[in-house]
């Protein structure tokens, strides 16, 4: 048998297409290209865009008449949580169940026009690779689990005097969108483990949130030493969950290159 015949998981080559009579949106000028346009797609990439009346027919390529429908470049969402299944507390789900449910979430994102999304806690490289050939979804840029300190934004363990029994070894655990790591050795280990697992960047929680019980929004989380340990040792793009000016300044002063939210500047 041919080699591909025994590898059904390998993605089939994309079909070449000609889209005719399209109204093409030009975001850079907030306008439409003049008149109906024809879009030539080969090997999964747009090769050309031009007036429909100037385009010659090609019997070897499938042609779709859009009849004046609008076409725009793919949208990009820079902050999503693909594993946060709507209507379900993600920390109550196993990874297997979460990964099964997110297939519909990713497909819905793509059908809404998002061709690239940046997941800031919860998704993994495994999901990104699955989208490349097994499931429908937008291109996925991900950080794996976000890092949070104990009692910080992202620590969903129960608050128990004397310590929660579910925190696992060495003060760290991983549930849902984030993982707990306290102290320089543990934050370094956690960051390195996420990078080893294929994270495209590292996310840390530097301030409180609005959707969690034990961290007021004005709190500052992680010490300067902990943040600098991550930003100077990992040599990777590090972004921080931070709402307030104090949290944002704390992150930037210690080498963080990106800020998520920043609503209270």
C-alpha Rg (nearest Å):
23 Å
What's the assembly state of these chains? single chain
Counted beta strands = 15
What is the name of the CATH class of the largest domain?
Alpha Beta
Fraction of residues in helices?
Answer: 10-25%
Structural class: alpha/beta
Report the CATH superfamily of the largest domain. Answer: Metal-dependent hydrolases
| CATH topology title of the largest domain | TIM Barrel
Alpha carbon gap, first and last residue: 63 Å
- Poorly predicted tracts of residues: 160-175
Biggest sheet features: 6 strands, mixed
Please report which band the strand proportion falls in: under 5%, 5-15%, 15-25%, 25-35%, 35-45% or over 45%: 25-35%
The averaged pLDDT comes out at 86
Silhouette:
elongated
* Domain module count: 2
Counted by DSSP, the helix tally is 5
CATH hierarchy: architecture of the largest domain: Alpha-Beta Barrel
- SSE pattern: EEEEEEEHEHEEEEHEHEHE
Structure explained in plain terms:
The chain is of the alpha/beta class. It folds into two domains: 17-73, Urease, subunit C, domain 1 (Roll), CATH 2.30.40; 76-264, Metal-dependent hydrolases (TIM Barrel). It contains five helices and 15 strands. Strands 1, 2, 3, 4, 5 and 6 form a six-stranded mixed sheet that branches. A hairpin with a 2-residue loop joins strand 11 (173-175) and strand 12. The protein starts with 16 loop residues before the first strand and ends with a strand. The model is unreliable at 160-175 (pLDDT under 50). InterPro entries: Amidohydro-rel, Metal-dep_hydrolase_composite, Metal_Hydrolase, Metallo-dep_Hydrolase. Pfam families: Amidohydro_1. It comes from Roridomyces roridus.
